Amino acid sequence: MDPSGPVDIPDASTIRLFNSPSFFRLWLGQVVSSIGDWLGFVAITALAARVGGSSPEAAISLVLSARLVPGFFFGPIAGVFVDRWDRKRTMIVCDVGRGLVLATLPFVDTIPGLVLASLLMETFTLMWGPARDASVPNLVQPEFLPQANSLSLVAAYGTFPIGSAVFALLAKVAEWLGGYDALRGLRINQESVAIYVDVATFFLSALVVSTLPISRAARGLVKPAKRADMKQTFRELAEGWKFISTNGVVRAVIFGIATGLFGGGMLVPLGPIFSKEVLGAGPSGFGLLLTALGVGMAVGIVGLSVTQRHLNHQIAFVGSLIVGGAMILLGASMSTLAPALGFVAVLGVCAGGVYVLGYSILGAAVEDDLRGRIFATLYTSTRLTLLMAFALAPVLSRLLDALSNRLFSGAISLGGASIGLPGVRLTLWLGGLIILFAGVVAFRNVKSVALEEPM
Description:
Number of strands: 2
Strand order of the largest sheet: 1-2
Mean pLDDT: 76
Strand content: under 5%
Shape: globular
Structural class: mainly alpha
């Protein structure tokens, strides 16, 4: 943590909710950028489906998968550059870069063009995200970090419905603008109008970030930036990995979040199947499960904002992991929708707690000159485990379904009751066990520090 503390003093208008004017401005920039992100996500998906022609599903999968590739090769190195460069300037360049890449999409008519744009967008995002996360502890007081991360979670994911609603409204705007001959060169349609609005949100975010006191000088790093030196880059990268391997708390948080996401991520591809084949609720049931998860996360975030000052953060983090794993096990054991909704809602509470507390622990435990590398490692690890969960869950479900039918004829009897063992339920049980394992390992790494932390 930067010993000098926050770079500005909270004023009366922001102290209760945002702690400092600078964090408030950064949060506003993130809200604007996130709305644009979700708007662009929907627009690019629609654009890929249109360009894909007779194979829209394959086109969408290829374009969206392209956004995961840079993280595997560039993610950890991005953290080195974030620690080396001026973070404010990095965020501004990345926002402007994303805006410029997006501005070309209405003129792209091929899947390779969309894939290239997705790769560039993700590369900029890999720089912007860790720079932002590493800057937050310098803008707020240490005890406010959990609430700051709660607000950031709301900005990142709570804006999805807004982005989707705006995209729907832009259909009428596109019809109106399409009547002007002077605008025909801009290829006006619903997707292109949404993309142009997204471009504006990135430029607005860059403008907001430009007002923040998070330059190298403000962070106390008055030394000149290092020249490009790949040997030094890899030395700094190794320094970050060494810190993670030797710091039990940091290792526990990164392992816990990444492994927990692997187990929980199985819910995404299997949720519709579970709702249809096990709960008998169909697509509407899956929608209710997602709603329960979102409401649970909101309750967890609000509750944590109120109680976080009285919590032992390490113990609460581990407890959220373990309870979350138990909720998946119990929810997957249900055969009707109503009790499953209750367990999924509690899972949402735990998921919000894991995210908020994990980021807060890292922000407090890592020195400023290493923070970019640590957050970049976390960012890359979570994306890798999510991709693995998305890819492996359907395969595991089919394999376990075949194994269950062969060994148990798809069900077992306990106490006179028959319990179905479809592959989707077995896979979700496996996901819950993986999260429980992550919680146990995390506790073993943090227990010496957690038991000493004052309440």
